[in-house]
Amino acid sequence: VVTLLTDYGLDDGFAGVCHGVIAGICPQARIIDLTHGIPRQDVLAGALVLAGAIRYMPAGVHVAVVDPGVGSARRAIAVASGDGRRFVGPDNGLLWLALHACGGIVEAVEISASPLRLAPVSATFHGRDIFAPAAAHLAAGVPLSAAGSPLDAGELVALEPPRARVADGILLAPVVYVDGFGNVQLGATNDEIEALGLEPGRSRVELALSVAAALDDAARAHSVTAVSATARYVRTFDDARADELIVYLDSAAALAVAVNRGSAAYRLGLKPTDVVRISKHPC
Amino acid sequence: VVTLLTDYGLDDGFAGVCHGVIAGICPQARIIDLTHGIPRQDVLAGALVLAGAIRYMPAGVHVAVVDPGVGSARRAIAVASGDGRRFVGPDNGLLWLALHACGGIVEAVEISASPLRLAPVSATFHGRDIFAPAAAHLAAGVPLSAAGSPLDAGELVALEPPRARVADGILLAPVVYVDGFGNVQLGATNDEIEALGLEPGRSRVELALSVAAALDDAARAHSVTAVSATARYVRTFDDARADELIVYLDSAAALAVAVNRGSAAYRLGLKPTDVVRISKHPC
Amino acid sequence: VVTLLTDYGLDDGFAGVCHGVIAGICPQARIIDLTHGIPRQDVLAGALVLAGAIRYMPAGVHVAVVDPGVGSARRAIAVASGDGRRFVGPDNGLLWLALHACGGIVEAVEISASPLRLAPVSATFHGRDIFAPAAAHLAAGVPLSAAGSPLDAGELVALEPPRARVADGILLAPVVYVDGFGNVQLGATNDEIEALGLEPGRSRVELALSVAAALDDAARAHSVTAVSATARYVRTFDDARADELIVYLDSAAALAVAVNRGSAAYRLGLKPTDVVRISKHPC
Prior knowledge:
3 copies of one chain form a homotrimer.
Chain A: E1 2-6, H1 14-25, E2 31-35, H2 43-53, E3 61-65, E4 76-81, E5 86-90, H3 96-101, E6 105-110, H4 126-139, E7 149-151, E8 165-167, E9 170-178, E10 184-186, H5 190-195, E11 204-210, H6 218-223, E12 225-233, E13 245-249, E14 255-259, H7 264-268, E15 275-280
Parallel strand pairs in A: 1-2, 1-3, 3-5, 12-13
Antiparallel strand pairs in A: 4-5, 4-6, 6-7, 8-9, 9-10, 9-15, 10-14, 11-12, 11-15, 13-14
Helix pairs in contact in A: 1-4
């Protein structure tokens, strides 16, 4: 199994070309398109989608390409994880969360000058020329050590996703992902919910939104309130009325904001890097 | 063969995750993506696309998920059809038209609490947790009776698509689907065309559009005319000039409105639930 | 291997239906979706994407459908190329560039009335009724001669993509394709760059844009300058600052205009058929 996650989109044939390269090198590989619709050059979104999906993928070779630094000195890497998977992609943090969800880094190699790459390597399409061929050869049985030169795990670029803070009964949670239904995933989990003292379906939650340049800028996050709204913390959409704003734990166990049969992103104007302020309703 | 039809889109990885779940349970399954682009939560559009496509699919397990009631008390079902196919999806009418195009309902089970489901089941992503695993196990040879508890065919939710009416030489036809080319499919077939006394390529047809809340509201459908235009009833696009408005029988044998090398939906502002009034041109 | 390239999009199930038809006729076929996102009815864009991608595809049966003349007298064809591939599609020039990139035309047959087609053939969906079945039977071992009636290679519709001109140190290059990142591919290659006397990363290039009805109208291309900008000719994105306008050789070895971490199409308002005027910067 070879899985692909990219920001190539499906219109231009880039994803199809990667399929062709892999099928040519390893005809027996089964290719699963995790998605090619990561927002262009959004490494964090790619890392989150990959980490959330990986445990539902059969163990195999997992290619991810969201690569604003293509053609630069950024490394191309192949990495074995603790649970026996192999990951292939740019060393820009994209693989980081998934690697840590899969038992951590066991072995890593730099494949920028891999003997397995296509020649000549273009300056702008490493998915085709470096990542897809490496993945196909790994799937065909080539050992990781033969794909490139060894790297120390500590040399890899780390990715630290923005995380929520709870203080004085107020949760400041960054928007990390907006899906196609307009459901807004926050950088928070059940832990923060418990810290607020909420119980599913029992609490009303007052929701006020602050747009801050970054979560670190906590003071501004408090002061710049663009929209405020009231939501209910529930277990699922069906606990809400049509069009009601809700907060819930989504299918990736992350805290999320949604509108039942509507789009929370549209109603509240939320996008990644916005910060949502959540506090318990007084009554 | 396992086919998938959903409204998940392809950007967020939901469809890819379903592929992963199926491939993990039943590695030998061949998965065909019928489409993941059904308009969000549009059960009727999903039902029509599935019913129109099913006879071109090899017999297998056919998953469909357009599921605004996910997490509610609505049933999740698996159904065997008269021609030996198995269908899996929510019991909200989505499977209804396809089941009847495939020989009707032979056996049905409720799989909401199926022993084949993933644990824990999320409240919002039953495609991953209930439907994909059930389909994969069925494809791997598990009998329908082992997938859930038996249901009477009469308990299933039916779906009655809006249909056209002909009276006094006037056809009132609901828009049921608009495709990506802007071709507008109506809830009418060759029968209604014959009732109007039209012959392909021989008749000029006057087309007047009425936007009505529902087709039942026939009086308003007559009176509220937003746009009127003249079209020609033809066999195919090539019988029309570039940019000409035409009425024809489409590849699903439904009456449709199109603009040759253009978009009828855009030109006429048509969308599903609109009603189109068609009558024969006097001269 | 059967590859598919169409302008069907992925929303309406048209591509999925073609998969189903092929899998039904030739279950052992591996289907690769090169893309279904060619701009609607844009034969030139489809021809360019197919020709650029084909050498990365395993040899097989290559279906392409961008077919504004569906239902007309235009031929449906199947063609064997010099390198042993088979191509299937409408005879409107769509296959032309790929055929010539693959060793030219060795054998051609007209398949409009092929014994392999589905019956009845719809007037508007030949992908399903003619092209997919023909491809599947070819993939299953049916010889080309059994798929239709012989055609002389000289009878096929040729496609001549617009090409650049260099004169007096000025390059006039047509926009031939805009990808999803907003990178703008021109109808020019390294030859024209050398004719201008440019070296990668060493030259500053002044870029002036003219919007002309066609490249043949060279006089107007000179005179109508809508936007002018300065760009640098580089090897790759990383040689440029963020947001800098660059000219480079893209992964298909074509000259292209891009904005590092941005969209050149958006910034310059470029679209296919526009003509870009490029000359060396005086200093």
